[in-house]
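Before going further, it is useful to explain how the protein records used in this thesis are read. An example of such a record is reproduced below.

***
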Amino acid sequence: MPKEIRDPEEFLMLAEKASECRIKRLGEVTKIKLRTPRQLYTLKIDSAKVEEILGKIKCPKKEF
């Protein structure tokens, strides 16, 4: 089961171990998913703040 993270700073720390980042835009909310070797993590965030977080993530990104 995926694990939802609510803190963007914790999400960025997990992104260092991630092999892939998937982005799904849903109107005013954007869902970002990180695939790590053991777990799938998700973060729901305002569309206005997404670009700031995506700029800090260094793993390959896929937009859906």
Q: What stands out?
A: The mean pLDDT is 95. The first helix runs from residue 8 to 15.
